[in-house]
Amino acid sequence: MEVHLASWWAQFLEASDSYDRAYLCEGLADLIGPHIGAPLLRREVKNAADAVIRHLERPGSQERAESAAEATDRLARTLERIADRSTGSAIATDEAAIVLDALRGRYAEAAEAAERLVGRAKLQRLFLTALRLERFDIPMAVRLLDGGQSPREAVRSGHLIGRYSWWPSWLLRVVTERALAGTLDEETVAALDKCAYAELSPIQANLARKLLSGNDRLIDTAANRLTDLGEPDAAARLREGDLTAVALAVRLVSM
């Protein structure tokens, strides 16, 4: 199984200035905890995670900060002690070390180590949810990641599409296709937004979808029709691939 490096997972965190550290810690601890075989070690890991999560939920509390630091240090010493006495020991500490990384804020490193254990799907959904981005299309971001896009590109596209969830379904299909093809950017979205406001009929919407898909024959026919209607500039823009001309084209051509 391919395992993604910490630098790949770090792209998620770079996509938001306000990702939810408490949620991320809790999620990683919940995913890894059941894989910690030794009951006493599993309990200590849980205690440390609870202390750090309480601190992250209220970072201004000095008492919680001290409690988190003490619990994390205690867990680190426990793992060191087990390692020092590990000759022939059946106690495995790799899983607990993953949680310790997360509790120390090394989320990307923890995810790299955890991927072999819990799989990519659960981890990437956890990271996407922790971004706490408003109007963010998580299912779309997941699809883009599964299609091979980097976290940086998938998050950007998911955020773009999420902002325009009110668009008609035919236009959402167009923008989804462009996102999956890696050709979605702010300029494209702004142009498509004009189509969303155009209040097209079902027939016009179908024509717009075909024009936006790059149907050369239909684009040529529509451009000729625009020229006949006295809109040579719009016809030229349409032939050049200017998306802003599509809404005008379908409204005039359909008349």
Secondary-structure map:
Blueprint: H1 6-14, H2 21-32, H3 39-57, H4 62-84, H5 94-103, H6 107-118, H7 120-130, H8 138-146, H9 151-162, H10 169-181, H11 186-196, H12 202-212, H13 216-228, H14 232-239, H15 244-253
Helix pairs in contact: 1-6, 2-3, 2-5, 2-6, 2-7, 3-4, 3-5, 4-5, 5-6, 6-7, 8-9, 9-10, 12-15, 13-14, 13-15, 14-15
Overall outline: elongated
The number of E-state strands comes to: 0
Which segments are poorly predicted (pLDDT under 50) over 5 or more consecutive residues? none
The H/E string reads HHHHHHHHHHHHHHH
Mean pLDDT: 87
Q: Gyration radius, to the nearest Å?
A: 26 Å
Counting helices, strands and paired strands, the structural category is mainly alpha
Number of helices: 15
In what range is the share of β-strand residues? under 5%
Distance between the terminal alpha carbons, to the nearest Å?
56 Å
| Helix content estimate | over 70%
Largest sheet: none
Write up this protein.
This protein starts with 5 loop residues before the first helix and ends with a helix. It has 15 helices and no strands. The longest helix has 23 residues, at 62-84. It is mainly α and 255 residues long. The mean pLDDT is 87.
